[in-house]
Design a protein that fits this description.
By secondary structure, the chain is of the alpha/beta class. It has five helices and eleven strands, in the order H-E-H-E-H-E-E-H-E-E-E-E-H-E-E-E. The strands form two sheets. Strands 1, 2, 3, 4, 5, 9, 10 and 11 form an eight-stranded mixed beta sheet that branches. A three-stranded antiparallel beta sheet has the order 6-7-8, with no helix packed on it. The radius of gyration is 16 Å and the shape is globular. The model has no long low-confidence stretch (mean pLDDT about 95).
Length: about 200
């Protein structure tokens, strides 16, 4: 499990009984603990092999969950119902966006499925702590010193997005600089509850 996601579990921000949706789940490393502990888990990824792996893990750890909880579809076009999840995980996904438009669709697709009062956990590549060390390709797409091309955000962008979404910070933005090769930020916000 991602160490920063585990931190949210330890703090009680993600607790048993919650419905968790992993938007862009990959091969399921963040679902194993949740499945083992009895969470109702949903996941989507556009990689069919990844979803088959997650389904296999779920068959072993949570055989009562239907396979339809795990869907082959892109984050921006997930077919899950609106406001179906207490927690949405977006772990190293949004920085795969090709441009501003796709980033916005991916963000909105992830936000749409989050219940009011729900927790949005996001790990995303950023420029924070490494300003000036990236080569801009186009718009918010940059080449990192590690050679990877990513859609990068900064603290001001995340603050602006939070304000636009009406998201409330759960804790301060945290960033890890990986040996001057890349920078990864952990952004944890809560969707405003309905009045």
């Amino acid at each position: 499990i991602d160490i920063y996601l585990f931190d949210q579990l330890l703090k009680g921000n993600i607790a048993p009984g919650m419905t968790v949706l992993d938007a862009g789940c990959g091969y399921g490393r963040n679902q194993i603990y949740m499945l083992r502990e009895g969470y109702e888990v949903f996941a989507a990824d556009d990689d069919a092999q990844a979803i088959e792996c997650v389904r296999s893990i779920a068959r072993n750890l949570a055989p009562n969950l239907p396979e339809t909880n795990f869907r082959v579809e892109p984050v921006e076009k997930m077919s899950f119902e609106d406001e179906c999840a207490d927690v949405v995980i977006s772990n190293t996904v949004l920085h795969l966006a090709k441009d501003d438009e796709q980033f916005e669709r991916m963000l909105q697709g992830s936000w749409r499925v989050l219940k009011p009062g729900g927790l949005f956990f996001c790990r995303i590549a950023s420029t924070i702590g490494m300003e000036g060390q990236f080569k801009q390709i186009k718009g918010s797409r940059y080449r990192s010193p590690d050679g990877a091309e990513r859609y990068l955000v900064d603290a001001a962008t995340l603050a602006s997005i939070a304000k636009r979404l009406g998201a409330e910070p759960v804790e301060p933005l945290k960033t890890t600089v990986v040996q001057d090769q890349r920078s990864m930020s952990t952004w944890v916000v809560r969707k405003k509850a309905r009045d």
